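Journal club side-thread
Mid-discussion, someone asked how the predicted structure for our own chain would compare to the paper's figures. Pasting it here so we can look after the session.
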Amino acid sequence: MKMKTIPLILLATALPLCSYAKLNVVATTAEYGAIAREIGGDHVTITTLGKPTEDPHFVDAKPSFIMKLNRADVLVEGGAELEMGWLPPLLEGGRNPKLDTGKPGRVQCAAGVRLLEVPATLDRSRGDEHAAGNPHFMTDPVNGQIAAKEVCDSFCQIDSQSADYYRAISRGSPGRLTRSWSNGRSAWLHSTASAS
């Protein structure tokens, strides 16, 4: 009789822990990490691969990133070839099927953005061209809102128990994201005007 109750007790104590597991999110840059943190709140843990001071095209890819990607539930990236020079080999090494293209765990924030500067023809003699268009779209706060929706949709698919939480945060985020961007831009403009 005791042997049957022990597994039941263990199961009963483990179930609540399973339902509150945080999503392990890896973001390629600080801006995508900030959006994921805003949408996920205390339901996610965020790891950012690129430093804010690094060019997102040339992040110093470290072997430790492979392990982080291997353990991730979600990857939030810019897409549109922004991370093309360093992310693919890390994903290959990470061998995480959750992060395969087209899976809910692979968020390409550019997916819903109308990119500018899409070349009519590709000609590498003109320098570095992005076939999909300019991947530096986060300077527009409207694109930040689009990226936040992409992140929210992914989180809702992967963690359906917390979907209402993510959607509620996402509905309130556009104003916060825009205010944050505007405040940062104002501070930057003020500092450049003072330096002149």
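Post-session note: The chain is about 50% helix and 10% strand.
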